[in-house]
Amino acid sequence: MKANWAETYYKRQFELMRSNSAYPANNFFEEEVSLLLEQVGRPSATVLELGAGRSDIANILARQDRKIVTIELVEEICGYAKKHAHQNVQALCGDFYTIKLQRDFDLILYLDGFGVGNDDDQSYLLQRIFNWLSDDGYALIDIYQPLYWQKIAGQEMYPFGIENIIRKYDYDEAGNRMTDTWWEKGKENETITQSLACYSPEQIYTLCEKAGLQIIAYYPSGAIDFETGAFQKIASLDECLSYRIKLKKN
Ligand SMILES: C[S@@+](CC[C@H](N)C(=O)[O-])C[C@H]1O[C@@H](n2cnc3c(N)ncnc32)[C@H](O)[C@@H]1O
């Protein structure tokens, strides 16, 4: 179930980004929401967002009168989300593996972060998503793409341009997981690492099918070009860093 590293990593990452004022600008989230609405392709009155972080996306979606529930594990991040929540957003602090929800939703989102546990944990979460989804609802989930992470293993950078923090990407071949390690310059012994399972389009199709969910679309995201350092907004399914799947009940 809940991975040991998750709370430590996301809490520390939140502190580092906050103390360096390193969050993306509002127009980044506005663009994300436009894209997401285009992918959903129809109105949804009730939305559930898993691993919602500060609820930046939820707050924008909520402006159009949707009722949104967000779930976030880390108390400090959730506290921020509650403080800044739009009136249509109910920000819940909790673990999406164990939290009890009394209703179903037209749309379920898990943006950036799927793959925290092992395959059984992922299957269990997909079953929970099946149970929370209304009969004609959609879910959108971002999946890390293994070929990209294999290719860029070993790359180091300054996350969000913060020059006192180093970020190193790697790939665990045995476990098929991307790893993302952060440390402050001069504090190489105090690293934090996230480790997320990567799935090919075929592998995730099979995992979803076992949970009664069918993938009806794949949307590749972009990729960092490490030669130029620029982020390419459009990449193929084999070259993107992650891709979004659109799911419905089988
Ligand atoms: C990579 S961040 C993405 C945040 C947000 N979705 C976004 O795109 O900005 C993943 C988030 O999922 C949360 N998370 C991880 N495991 C969780 C769990 N078991 N239950 C609820 N939230 C979890 C983390 O604390 C973190 O804030």
UniProtKB/TrEMBL annotation:
Residues 47-137 form the Methyltransferase domain. Gene3D superfamilies: S-adenosyl-L-methionine-dependent methyltransferases, Vaccinia Virus protein VP39. It is an enzyme of class 2 (transferase). One of its GO terms (molecular function) is 2-polyprenyl-6-hydroxyphenol methylase activity. It comes from the Bacteria. Keywords: Methyltransferase, Transferase. It holds the Pfam family Methyltransf_25. Its EC number is 2.1.1.222, 2.1.1.64. The keyword DNA damage does not apply. GO terms for biological process: methylation. This is Class I SAM-dependent methyltransferase.
